[in-house]
Specification:
By secondary structure, the chain is α/β, with parallel strands linked by helices. The protein has one domain (10-174): Maf protein (Alpha-Beta Complex). The chain has 6 helices and 5 strands, in the order αβαβαααβββα. A hairpin with a 4-residue loop joins β4 (123-129) and β5 (134-140). α1 (10-24) packs parallel to α6 (145-175).
Length: 179
């Protein structure tokens, strides 16, 4: 599913879909944010009834907080910086663990105006950590700082939505004897 950067209703609809799927499976969600600075949490908490599934969030904007609060490996951060797929995955796993959630999602990247950690503006990594696996996606976004941040929010929620659908299919298959 693709949407133009900055689409105003995309993230809200996906947030509602994610929370509905989590509620149906008695799942919970925690969010770790860097470049989005709380925007993912804001989208989720704008949905009525979000408190049933949303545990909370950590906005770890400063690189050292990714290590101290979320448990991202310090050597990884020193070697590659914060804008990295493995960092995003460790942020998602760390917030999931720290806040006691079934699922964790994370955003890290460069919204601009300047490059960071050797990465150009528009380089973003979003990740999800769940009961069985971790997954990250690298984005190469164009547009203003605001557009890059909004698209990052939408994309991390879509990644989680996809993983929740896959997880539901996996559980259905297990309950039906692997058929």
């Amino acid at each position: 599913m693709t949407h133009p950067a900055g689409e105003s209703t995309g993230a809200a609809g996906v947030a509602a879909e994610v929370l509905r799927a989590l509620a149906e499976s008695d799942g919970t969600l925690a969010v770790a944010e860097s470049l989005t600075g709380g925007m993912v949490a804001a989208e989720l908490t704008a949905v009525p009834g979000a408190s049933r599934s949303f545990r909370g969030s950590v906005t770890a904007y400063a690189t050292e907080l990714k290590h101290t609060l979320l448990g991202v490996d310090a050597a990884l951060l020193a070697a590659h910086g914060a804008v990295n797929a493995q960092v995003a995955e460790e942020m998602a796993a760390g917030v999931r663990r720290a806040l006691g959630a079934s699922w964790g999602i994370a955003t890290t990247g460069v919204a601009g105006p300047d490059p960071q950690d050797g990465q150009p503006v528009g380089t973003v990594f979003v990740a999800v950590a769940g009961p069985w696996a971790r997954k990250s996606v690298r984005l190469r976004l164009n547009g203003s700082r605001t557009e890059i941040r909004r698209e990052s929010v939408r994309t991390v929620l879509e990644l989680l939505s996809s993983e929740l659908r896959d997880n539901a299919r996996r559980q259905d298959t297990e309950q039906n004897g692997g058929i």
